[in-house]
Design goal:
This protein has 432 residues and is mainly β. Helices cover 10% and strands 35% of the residues.
Amino acid sequence: MGRFVTRKAAIGKILAAAAAGALALTLVTACGNDQPKAPTFVNNNQAAAPSASPTAPPVPFEFAVTPADKKKNLPVSTEIGTSVKGGEITSVALTDKAGKAVKGTLREDKSSWVPSAPLKYDTDYTATVVATSAAGQAETKKVSFSTRGKSGNDIGSGMYLFNGKTYGVAMPVVMEFSPGIPKRDRAAVQRRLFVQTDPPQPGVWHWVSSGTQAYYRGPDYWQAGTKITVRAALEGIPLSNGRFGDQDRRATAKIGDKFVMKVENKTKKMQVFKNDKLVKTFPVSLGKPSTPSSSGTLIVMDKQEHTVFDTFAELGPEEGYRTDIDFAQRLTWGGEFIHSAPWSVGDQGVRNVSHGCVNLAPQNASWLFGQTKVGDPITIKGTERKLEPGNGWTAWNLSWADFVKGSALPVPDSLKSPGSTGNATPTPTPTD
């Protein structure tokens, strides 16, 4: 049983449920990263003195700050840019017109200082930046600027990682945008997507071609017990299509035990692994040839113990159906699920009869539902259809080499190879 739910409806329901404090869907339409000494010149009539390499000339101390002084109508996403040669940034302070301090953190590469929250609209600010030369000389620069008013022409955005939740090891950080982010804006947006992992693990952002989604993951699944802290600092960021970022989003979540499912169409069986140990094998029925299941690595996106699959709007009155479903676990936006299917028990392990879903016997579906988490991966092999990019959280359906190609920012060589232990992002950034 099962066929496709509309993407728009599913997104709306997931985000609406998240705003209420839970990730859930309602009615669905179903399956389907020593200075060298100066040289000694020798007189041929004297004993030769030891030779040494030339000393490199000192780097001149240069120090600049942005924005320009008295700049007006800046976005509330404004950062204090810092550029120093022959020295380093010592401190950055930002205050509003009333003298109230604004909290913030320097990016790790010290290219700018990022406020910990969006600045206020229609507000005057003064930034005081101190840099110290290599010789110990301190220099202070002050700039004042003002922010623009709120436009009301915002993008819609969502983040599929919620505070305090526990997820599976394949859970990417997923950003959703409506409309999609134009290509020329993606680097600027990506620089405002901040991720930290504890223990540290590398990761990179990848954009789907439409710009409607961006995923963050590493070369390998997250380590069990990892804490992920995310800030999508998008409020007020200006885009080339005349829109602005809608809001800052934050979440700190945990990664639970490693739980992996593998399905082979050839055998019509599901193998279930917990912490790399095989714990269960179940017979399954997949999508029949006319409505095949998608082959690839999919991720559990949502779970509902009881729901209704209603496909009349999608398939019409002749082929559509409305069916009560138990233990439903969404895998794609198009409507493929793992779920209980008592009507196909005789077919499970033998033949494929579903509309694209992974059918299980009720007792097996119930056990599996009690074990899985959103973010757990399932790999399906050998069906007539490949998983389409963006049809669900398809971050793990790409090799690492292909995944890093989707970054809008340059990816260091240290992050391009599997098993990388490089920094968490191409330009590590603060989440405070």
